Amino acid sequence: MSDSLVNLKRAMNKTVFNEFTFSDERKKAVKEKIREKHSLHHLNSWEEKTIKTVLESIQREPKHGYDISTFLFQKQEKSFQSNEGELYTLLHLLENKEIITSKWIQEKKYYSLTTKGKKYLATYEIGSSERFNTLKNITEEGSI
Amino acid sequence: MNELEQLTVTSDSIEIKEQMIEQLMYEYSEGILYLVFTYVKNRATAEDLTQEIFIKCYEKLDQFNQNASIKTWLYRIASNHCKDYLRSWHYRKITLNEKVWDFIPSKSKRVEDEVIAKDRDINLSNAVMALPIKYREVVFLHYYEELSLADISKVTTININTIKTRLKRAKELLKDKMIKEV
After folding, report:
1. Count: domains in chain B
2. B127 has a chain A CB within 8 A of its CB
3. What's the ipTM?
4. CB distance B54–A30 less than 8 Å?
5. Could you list the residue range(s) of the whole structural domain that residue B21 is in?
6. Are B163 and B138 in contact (CB under 8 A)?
7. Confidence (pTM)
8. Which residue is closest to A50 within chain B, CA to CA?
9. pLDDT digits (tens, 9 = 90+) for B50-97
10. Are A89 and A36 members of one domain?
């Protein structure tokens, strides 16, 4: 008897589990449900797209907060729409991580990308696994 | 597997959690689906519950202890979820009729000139699926998933000696069953 139990995996795969998989539709349904859930409480968490757009806004020239916010609006980035203060939280976080740097000019704080920041932005364009790790490092700090 | 375990999951980032779940589904959805089926014996229900399990997993991701194995953690959530389902009013109200059909080994799949090996596979699967739940779950985890007794204990929260006893008893039950069928 114990001999045949060794074959259980093969036996079940050929019978009860035959042509039985967790379909892509099912996986998609899980992802959609998750999205629904997080839209309800997304405080302190930023989407990859949001971070990317913020970095892009200061890619060519230093900008102050209000300009960045205008840029985001033009790009239809709505994460900060009802809570603009959060943008500054994110900027502060990015600054702490030395992804961006800032300079005071005429009582306004201008943000620009550091070399590290440029690299980060570049990684958004490449493979997802690498981007995954990079992003993980950035956002981990934000979860405190 | 290793890669998955190394990932830090304490992060608040939704994006990362989503990717984690995607990876987990890629890696374990079939295993979870089969485990769930072993409990509930119904394909559609197994699919529904598996879906719910991954959503639950997403919600609990912050509670995952990084020193633990993510597979064991995930299977434990699945096992608990199935047991909750089997205790639920929804499941109990399913007519007796439907349940009875679950216990009758399906003969429909049998084609007359099947090779003997295939027949043996069907017999074994049916015999295992006909076991009472407390035996069925440990048999599946031990012989199908090839989990160690320690891991089975983590997944099911049953202590190791009890698992040993159940495996032994399950083998006896299967032996009787298989002899009768031959």
Report:
1. 2
2. no
3. 0.79
4. yes
5. 1-104
6. yes
7. 0.61
8. B15
9. 999 999 999 898 888 887 899 999 999 999 999 999 988 777 776 555
10. no
